[in-house]
Design a protein that fits this description.
With 288 residues, the chain is an alpha/beta fold. It has helices spanning 46-59, 78-91, 104-109, 112-121, 135-140, 147-160, 174-192, 209-215, 224-236, 264-277, and strands at 17-20, 22-23, 42-43, 65-69, 97-102, 125-131, 163-170, 196-201, 244-246, 257-259.
C-alpha cells in the first residue's frame, strides 16, 4: 500500500484493510480538527486504486473488511465507486464489510438514487461527522454545514439503507454553549436515528485555530467532570429506539455503552459510578 500522509480510521475499523480513495478531507476547515492538515485534498486516480486492490488480493489470503480513506471517500465519483465495489464482490468475496467516512456535504451532493446504488453494490457502513447539533457551535467551529443540513444528510444515508454511525464531540460547545450543544445534539440525533452514536471528547491540537482561541482565553474548555454532566444531558435528550451509544475512542474519560432507549438508566449509572470512583467531592469541580 502506498499511503500518503497520516492515516485515520474509526476504532472499530482497526482490523480493516485501508484503501485511500481520496487524499485528505474535502472540507478540512473545522477549527478543532488536526487531521489531514498535512494534505491538500484530491481524488486519487481510479487506476491507482484498482492496482492497490489487486496488490491487496495477491498479498492477503483473507480480507474480512475494508475501510475507504481518507476523510471523505464518499466524495469519490459514483461510477468509480461502483467499479471498486464490483471488483470487491468478484475478487474479494469473503469481504463482508466495506465502510467509509462521510461528510454532510458529500451526502447532500449525492442524489438519493446514487446512495441507494452504492449501498446495493456493497458500501455497508458510513461514519458521519455530526460533531454538534447546535448551529452556533457548528458555525463557531466552521463545520461547513448547518444542523438542518446534517439532519437531511443523515436521513438520506438511512433511507439508502446504510448502517450509520454518527460521531459526536463532547465539550465542543465549551463553557458558554455546553447546554445548547447537549440538547440540540440530542434533537438532531433523534431526527437522524443513526444505528450507533460514537462520542469522543474534545482535545485541543496545537496548530489548530481552536488551540489559539484556548490560549487567548476566548474558548474555555470543560473539565472532565463537566464533560460527564454534559454527556448525561446529551443522553437524556436522545430518543432513538435500538440505537447503540458508545465512547470507545481514546480521547474519552469514561467508557460508556448502552442501547437507547431501554438502557438510559444504565448509562447514567456508568457516568455516576465514574464520578464516585474518583472519590473526590465532585461539586468542587463543577462550574457550569
Amino acid at each position: 500500500m502506498n499511503y500518503e500522509g497520516n492515516i485515520y480510521r474509526p476504532p472499530t475499523e482497526a482490523d480493516s484493510l485501508i484503501i485511500q480513495l481520496t487524499i485528505g478531507c474535502s472540507h478540512n476547515g473545522c477549527i478543532f480538527c488536526g487531521m489531514f492538515k498535512d494534505k491538500e485534498f484530491r481524488l486519487r486516480p481510479i487506476d491507482e486504486v484498482m492496482e492497490e486492490l489487486n496488490e491487496a488480493r495477491l498479498t492477503h489470503q483473507y480480507i474480512r473488511s475494508i475501510f475507504l480513506a481518507d476523510g471523505d471517500a464518499l466524495s469519490y465519483r459514483t461510477k468509480d465507486l461502483i467499479k471498486i465495489f464490483e471488483y470487491i464482490k468478484i475478487n474479494i468475496p469473503e469481504c463482508k464489510h466495506v465502510a467509509s467516512y462521510a461528510t454532510p456535504r458529500s451526502l447532500l451532493l449525492k442524489k438519493q438514487e446514487e446512495l441507494d446504488i452504492l449501498h446495493q453494490k456493497g458500501l455497508a457502513v458510513l461514519y458521519l461527522g455530526v460533531e454538534s447539533g447546535s448551529d452556533n457551535v457548528l458555525k463557531y467551529m466552521n463545520k461547513g454545514a448547518t444542523a438542518d443540513e446534517i439532519i437531511i444528510a443523515g436521513q438520506k444515508a438511512k433511507t439508502a439503507g446504510f448502517q450509520l454511525v454518527a460521531m459526536m464531540v463532547a465539550g465542543l460547545g465549551g463553557k458558554n454553549l455546553w447546554k445548547e450543544h447537549a440538547t440540540h445534539s440530542g434533537r438532531v440525533l433523534s431526527l437522524i436515528k443513526p444505528d450507533f452514536i460514537a462520542a469522543m471528547t474534545l482535545n485541543i491540537v496545537p496548530g489548530t485555530k481552536l488551540y489559539d482561541k484556548v490560549q487567548c482565553g476566548e474558548f474555555k474548555m470543560l473539565t472532565p467532570y463537566e464533560i460527564l454532566y454534559e454527556t448525561k444531558m446529551l443522553i437524556n435528550n436522545i430518543d432513538i429506539e435500538g440505537c447503540v451509544f458508545l465512547t470507545n475512542h481514546i480521547s474519552n474519560y469514561v467508557y460508556i455503552y448502552g442501547t437507547f432507549n431501554k438502557e438510559k438508566s444504565k448509562m447514567y449509572m456508568q457516568i455516576d459510578d465514574a464520578i464516585k470512583f474518583a472519590n473526590i467531592n465532585e461539586q468542587k469541580y463543577i462550574n457550569l
